[in-house]
């Protein structure tokens, strides 16, 4: 589309396809193109650069314009971050990265191995805790997740932790029994520490399509999601579905995962995201 | 569902005449929208809708069936044909032990799928052997070893750190264990990571697999085509396993990948347990995508 001096009908279709292949979904793509057409009607003879600049602005605005920080003020006690999401999204790895970042900022961090179900889940988180140089609370394999989380919070309070990061087992939002288990984990957190959890982060795989909206809806309804982590944005997927999620549920993206190393975690910046989607 | 969405489009057309370009065009816009919502790649949706147009326009409106339903039948049949065709089983014939490589993006379900394939093979009277060739992900080898032990399968537990070496030694151990199929679990990687794609080519050259399975997350969106094209170009694969289909993702990736690479979907992952593997049914998949 770029490199053309004037704008014609074919270009609107190209912009729509750019958005579609970024996983914005048809509804958001149509809305944005309609909005751009309306705006360009007022410009007289727009060029591609002008339209793209407007496109980027529209994307960034739809995502809140500014980065949104994590709520890590636990008042008298530790701040608790509950990390949830479907299988394989990137929860455990994201917790490792976040632990390293917060620890690097001088915070006392504790990670809790709340995935007592999947093979070698606790071992996996233990390696990350070691890399981030933070303590970890684990239970026995097959133990009740809520019980391990309770123990973890107890330990965090005793140790004077500033932040407690709670890992949970991956689960599909369609499994009501597993969603009930997660609600129970949340209740245990609320009971042990009034005001907690201070953040409930839903981790989304950046390659996920429209199903991410349903994930956000269902996890949101049952748990109350305060922010999204969009992992695996270092691939070719653009993660445009977060616009549809913001539009419907008003949940902000707070963090993005851009690789498999400890340092590969970045704050979500709507302008940078817009730039990557529509360069 | 698609049927009811198309009923409005054909309100004036009941029981007379022919499906014309005009009334089909509006139906096709609805169909394209439905495919995009189901995560079918936008180019594949475009191609597919063209094929439907060619088949639907000029059809006589049948008595006793709503024109919308008639178009849906064309769509459904066209999709089943695109998804199905060849019999889709992995190639596990040849002098034992037959190597099968399992590859794909991070978190797609490879390690779990290896355990599922081992169970599937055992039920067929084969002797599977598992090789955990992912030295990168924390506790990846533990994960496969524990899965193997829980399901009574032999598994390679050597100390090597290089995936090519793990696979070479793993194949030797499989011979000693009198196994007849070897499942090589590889590390998740990006199709655009040239170094790691080269590593897969080295593994392939070392073990000479009879089958390479690309494991794809069933909720994947438009990226399905990038991933499939790059894996085909940089490595080559013989079958696809679409995982996490026990969720409510529509699975449009099945159509996209099949259409763009011609490679068949061979299995669906339908749960976390090692028995949650189903053979792929084109007609069921078509209904799911078009729901
Ligand atoms: N390239 C890339 N890979 C990532 C990123 N985040 C996580 N991964 C990889 O994705 C895979 C799955 O990550 P996990 O952290 O195990 O995901 P999970 O959500 O905890 O998975 P379950 O606990 O099994 O549900 C691993 O191979 C990670 O290294 C990222 O930002 N970029
Ligand atoms: N519900 C469901 N979960 C699945 C399915 N297949 C795998 N999983 C889960 O998805 C998550 C990731 O599975 P893994 O087998 O670790 O994925 P992987 O491709 O080996 O991941 P990497 O090695 O990090 O690339 C785990 O929580 C699995 O239990 C499936 O068909 N259905
Ligand atoms: Mg995990
Ligand atoms: Mg694995």
Give me the secondary-structure topology.
The complex is a heterodimer of chains A (279) and B (291).
Chain A: H1 9-20, H2 26-41, H3 48-62, E1 79-84, H4 91-104, E2 109-114, H5 121-132, E3 136-137, H6 145-159, E4 163-168, H7 176-192, E5 199-205, H8 211-223, E6 227-231, H9 241-249, E7 253-257, E8 265-267, H10 270-277
Parallel strand pairs in A: 1-4, 1-5, 2-3, 2-4, 5-6, 6-7
Antiparallel strand pairs in A: 7-8
Helix pairs in contact in A: 1-2, 3-10, 4-5, 6-7, 8-9
Chain B: H1 2-9, H2 21-37, H3 42-56, H4 67-83, E1 98-104, H5 110-123, E2 128-133, H6 140-150, E3 154-155, H7 163-176, E4 181-186, H8 194-207, E5 211-217, H9 223-234, E6 239-243, H10 253-261, E7 265-269, E8 277-279, H11 282-290
Parallel strand pairs in B: 1-4, 1-5, 2-3, 2-4, 5-6, 6-7
Antiparallel strand pairs in B: 7-8
Helix pairs in contact in B: 1-2, 1-4, 2-3, 3-4, 4-11, 5-6, 7-8, 9-10
Provide a quick synopsis of the model.
The complex is a heterodimer of chains A (279) and B (291). Chain A is elongated and about 65 Å long.
**Low-confidence runs of chain B:** none
* Portion in beta strands of chain A: 5-15%
Order of helices and strands of chain B: HHHHEHEHEHEHEHEHEEH
Would you report the number of β strands of chain B?
8
N-to-C span of chain B? 5 Å
Number of strands of chain A: 8
Distance between the termini of chain A: 11 Å
Largest interface: A-B, 38 and 42 residues
- Quaternary status: heterodimer
Based on CA atoms alone, the radius of gyration of chain B comes out at: 22 Å
Residue-averaged pLDDT of chain A, rounded? 95
Q: Helical element count of chain A?
A: 10
Describe this structure in words.
The complex is a heterodimer of chains A (279) and B (291). Helices cover 47% and strands 14% of the residues of chain A. Chain A contains ten helices and eight strands. An eight-stranded mixed beta sheet of chain A has the order 3-2-4-1-5-6-7-8, sandwiched between helices. Chain A starts with 8 loop residues before the first helix and ends with a helix. Chain B is of the alpha/beta class and 291 residues long. In chain B, strands 3-2-4-1-5-6-7-8 form an eight-stranded mixed beta sheet, sandwiched between helices. The chains are: A alpha/beta (279), B alpha/beta (291). At the A-B interface, helix 5 and helix 8 of A face helix 2, helix 6 and helix 9 of B. Bound molecules: guanosine-5'-triphosphate (2 copies) and magnesium ion (2 copies). The site of one magnesium ion (MG) has 6 residues of chain B, from helix 5.
């Amino acid at each position: 589309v770029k490199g053309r001096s004037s704008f014609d009908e074919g270009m609107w279709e190209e912009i729509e396809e750019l958005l579609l292949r970024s996983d914005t979904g048809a509804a958001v793509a149509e809305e944005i193109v309609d909005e751009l057409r309306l705006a360009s009607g007022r410009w007289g003879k727009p060029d591609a650069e002008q339209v793209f600049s407007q496109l980027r602005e529209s994307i960034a605005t739809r995502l809140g314009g500014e980065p949104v920080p994590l709520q890590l003020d636990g008042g008298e006690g530790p701040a608790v971050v509950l990390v949830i999401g479907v299988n394989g999204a990137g929860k455990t790895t994201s917790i490792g990265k976040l632990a390293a970042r917060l620890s690097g900022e001088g915070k006392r961090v504790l990670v809790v191995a709340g995935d007592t179900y999947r093979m070698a889940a606790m071992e996996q988180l233990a390696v990350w805790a070691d890399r981030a140089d933070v303590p970890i609370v684990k239970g026995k394999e097959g133990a009740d997740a809520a019980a391990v989380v309770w123990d973890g919070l107890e330990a965090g309070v005793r140790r004077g932790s500033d932040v407690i990061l709670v890992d949970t087992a991956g689960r599909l939002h369609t499994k009501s029994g597993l969603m009930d288990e997660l609600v129970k984990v949340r209740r245990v957190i609320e009971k042990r520490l009034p005001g907690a959890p201070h953040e409930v982060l839903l981790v989304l795989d950046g390659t996920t399509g429209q199903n991410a909206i349903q994930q956000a809806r269902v996890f949101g309804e049952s748990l109350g999601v305060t922010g999204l982590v969009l992992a695996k944005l270092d691939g070719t997927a653009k993660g445009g579905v977060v616009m549809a999620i913001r539009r419907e549920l008003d949940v902000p993206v707070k963090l993005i995962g851009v690789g498999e190393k400890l340092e590969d975690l970045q704050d979500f910046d709507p302008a940078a995201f817009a730039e990557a989607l529509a360069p | 569902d698609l049927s009811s969405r198309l009923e409005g489009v054909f309100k004036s057309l009941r029981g007379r005449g022919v499906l014309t370009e005009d009334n089909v065009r509006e139906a096709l816009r609805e169909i394209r929208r439905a495919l995009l919502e189901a995560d079918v790649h936008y180019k594949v949706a475009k191609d597919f809708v063209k094929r439907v147009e060619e088949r639907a326009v000029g059809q006589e409106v049948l008595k006793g069936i709503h024109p919308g339903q008639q178009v849906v039948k064309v769509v459904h049949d066209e999709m089943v044909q695109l998804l199905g065709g060849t019999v889709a089983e992995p190639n596990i014939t040849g002098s034992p032990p037959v190597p099968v490589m399992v590859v794909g993006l991070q978190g797609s379900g490879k390690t779990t799928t290896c355990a599922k394939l081992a169970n599937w093979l055992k039920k067929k009277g084969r002797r599977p052997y598992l090789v955990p060739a992912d030295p990168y992900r924390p506790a990846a080898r533990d994960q496969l070893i524990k899965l193997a032990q829980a399901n009574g399968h032999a598994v390679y537990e050597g100390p090597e750190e290089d995936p090519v070496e793990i696979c070479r030694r793993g194949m030797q151990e499989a011979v000693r264990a009198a196994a007849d199929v070897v499942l090589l679990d590889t590390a998740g990687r990006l199709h655009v990571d040239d170094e790691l794609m080269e590593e897969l080519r080295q593994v392939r050259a070392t073990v000479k697999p009879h089958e390479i399975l690309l494991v794809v997350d069933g909720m994947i969106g438009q990226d399905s085509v990038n991933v499939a094209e790059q894996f085909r170009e940089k490595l080559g694969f013989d079958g696809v396993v679409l995982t996490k289909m026990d969720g409510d993702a529509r699975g449009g990736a099945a159509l996209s990948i099949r259409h763009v690479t011609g490679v068949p979907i061979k299995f669906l992952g339908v749960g976390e347990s090692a028995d949650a593997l189903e053979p792929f049914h084109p007609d069921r998949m078509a209904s799911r995508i078009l729901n």
